[in-house]
C-alpha cells in the first residue's frame, strides 16, 4: 500500500533557504524515500512571482514523491492540513537596526503564522523555527498557538550541531559519519556552546572520546568553539549571502530524526522547551542533546557537566532570558 502524502509547510519559500530546502523535501531526504509529500509554500506578496517560479521548477523536476504543490501568499491556505511546518520566513536584521526593531517585526509575523497553524494545521503538527532569532521566534509562536503541544514547537540548532561534527571530522581527517554526540547548548546565536566532552569517534579500534583523539584542549576550548559560533558570519563573508544549503540540510536532518528516530546510542541537538533539566531555566526554548523515538524527542539526562561548560551554558541561558523579556515587551 502506498503511504498517504504528508503536507509539509515551508514559509519564506521563495528565499535562499527555501530554494535549497524544497527539492530536498520533494526528493525524500526529510521524511524518507517512500513517503509522498504535498508541499505548501508560503511567502509575502512581493515575492509571489518568485514563489511561482519555484513552483514551476518543482513541476519541471518531476519528483516522483511530490504529489502536489500549494504556492500561496495566504497564511490560512498555507497552514491548512500541514503535519510538518518549517518556519524559514522572518524579518532579517538590517544595518542600523536595533534588536528590538527586529523582534517587533518578527513578533507580528509569528503571531499571524502561529494563529493560522493553531486553527488550520493537522492535530499533531511538528514545527521547527529556522528564522532568527530562532529560539525566541519559536517561543513567540508557542505563545500564540497555545493548543499546539509545547513539545511540538522546536527551533533549529542542528545546523550548529552539524558544523561541530564537521569541524571535528576535518581536524581528525575522518569521515563525518564516524563522529557523534557533540552537543549544542543554548541559543542559536554566537553565545551557543558547542560541547565535545561527550563526543566520540568510531575508530578501527572502537569508539574513542574526541578529547582523547584531538589531544589539544586549548583548541577545543577556544578556536573550535569560536569557529562553530561564528561559522554563519564566515559564510556570509565568503558567499556574500547567508548559509542556505547547510541550513536546509540541517532542517531536513532535524525533522527526519524527530519523525523517524535517532540511531541507537546517538543523540542530536534540538532547540526545545526547557523543563529545567541541567539547571536551565524552565520556559526557555534552549538547545539540548536529545534522542528521538516514535515521533517524540527526549532530553538526554544525567551527563556530567564540568565548570567550564557550566559557565558557557549559563551565559547562553542568560542571553535567552534577556531575549525572552525583549520579545514579551513587544507582545503588548
TrEMBL record:
Family: Belongs to the LDH/MDH superfamily. MDH type 2 family.
All residue ranges annotated as the Lactate/malate dehydrogenase C-terminal domain in the record: 157-325
One annotated GO molecular function: L-malate dehydrogenase (NAD+) activity
Enzyme class label: oxidoreductase
Entry binding sites for substrate: 93, 99, 132, 163
Chain sites annotated for binding NAD(+): 12-18, 43, 106, 130-132
Domain Lactate/malate dehydrogenase N-terminal per the UniProt entry, residue ranges: 6-153
An example Gene Ontology biological process: malate metabolic process
Entry EC no(s): 1.1.1.37
Catalytic activity of the protein: (S)-malate + NAD(+) = oxaloacetate + NADH + H(+)
Entry-linked Pfam families: Ldh_1_C, Ldh_1_N
Keyword check for Oxidoreductase: yes
Swiss-Prot/TrEMBL keywords: NAD, Oxidoreductase, Tricarboxylic acid cycle
Name assigned to this protein: Malate dehydrogenase
Recorded superkingdom: Eukaryota
Record-annotated active site: 188 (proton acceptor)
